[in-house]
Amino acid sequence: MSIEQEDADILEYYKSYGVLRRQIEILKLELKGLTSERERLKNEILSLLDKAEALRREVDELEEKRRVLESEIKRLEAEREKLVQEIQIVKTAGISAIKSYEESMVLTEVLQELLKKRKPSAEEERKVEEAVKKEAPRVSEKERAAVKVEVKPREKKVEKPAAKKPVKRSVLATLIDKNMKSVLEVIAASDEIDVSEVALRTGLSLTSVRSIAAILWGYNLVEMRSEKIDDKISVKYRITEKGRKILEELA
Predict the structure, then answer these.
(1) Which of 28, 84, 146, 238 has the maximum number of C-beta atoms within 10 A of its C-beta?
(2) Are the C-beta atoms of residues 89 and 211 closer than 8 Å to each other?
(3) Distance between CA atoms of 251 and 249, rounded to whole angstroms?
(4) Which of 206, 248, 250, 247 is CA-nearest to residue 82?
(5) How does pLDDT run across 172-204, given as a tens digit for each residue?
(6) pLDDT value at residue 240
(7) Dihedral sign, CA of 99, 105, 109, 114?
(8) Would residue 117 count as lying in a domain?
(9) What domain range is 114 assigned to?
(10) Helix (H, G, I), strand (E, B), or coil: what is residue 140?
(11) C-beta neighbour count of 173 within 10 angstroms
């Protein structure tokens, strides 16, 4: 092989080496760029994962809130149904109580009118006395002297024990039956008592006690209030002063 050929080969080798070296540099730059891109994508993925985790926690919290709200809605629906039933019972019993009260008031007015008619006024009594005096026969002095007056010895009066006057009951007291009285007595025995306790002590059903208590409430013999205990509506009663007076009349 000639020297020229060797020089040409060496020159070609250096050229190829230079090309390869440039390609290596280019590849290094590209690799560096890819590495930076990879790091950027990695950081972006990590950021997205953090956001996804945060969103998952938020979804879990919202799901828990949804369950709580659904439970609260169900509880409120149940309470609403109970309140609707209570209002219906009170409304029905209240209407009945108002009608009974109106009837008793009408009866009272009728009795008062009858008593007024039976009892004469002071003017009428005075006129009757004057009429009796005018009609009384006149007796002369001679007639008086001719009349023998027989004087009888005074008899000792034996005092009889005074009979007890029957207690006069009001019209309202006459409307109270046995069950109403028992419910009123149980309510009067406590400062405040729950409807279920009244039913237990009287032996009546809960519905009967509620109806009777509503009628007594309509007569203003008891006070009624409701309160929330452990997610339940409790109805409590308290006797009024008017109720105590009625019990005294019924005793």
Answers:
(1) 238
(2) yes
(3) 6
(4) 206
(5) 778 888 888 899 999 999 888 888 899 999 998
(6) 92
(7) positive
(8) yes
(9) 79-130+172-250
(10) coil
(11) 17
Q: How many domains does the chain have?
A: 1
Per the structure block, which two tokens stand in for 73?
Answer: 């809605």
Domain for residue 185, yes or no? Answer: yes
The answer to the question of residue 139 being in a domain is no
Q: Return the SS3 of 230.
A: coil
Mean pLDDT, rounded, for 56-61: 90
- pLDDT grade for 12, boundaries at 50, 70 and 90: confident
Contact, 170 vs 249, CB < 8 A? yes
Report the side by side order of strands in the sheet with 222-229: 193-194, 232-239, 222-229
19-42 confidence digits (pLDDT tens): 788 888 888 888 888 888 888 898
Residue 101 lies in a domain: yes
- The DSSP symbol for 219 reads T
If pLDDT is split at 50, 70 and 90, which confidence band does 138 have? very low
Domain of 213, CATH number, reads: 1.10.10.10
Determine the Cα–Cα distance for residues 100 and 220; give it in Å rounded to an integer.
Answer: 13
pLDDT at res. 127: 57
Considering only CA atoms, which of 100, 53, 61 is closest in space to residue 220? 100
Cα separation, 127 vs 243, whole angstroms = 45
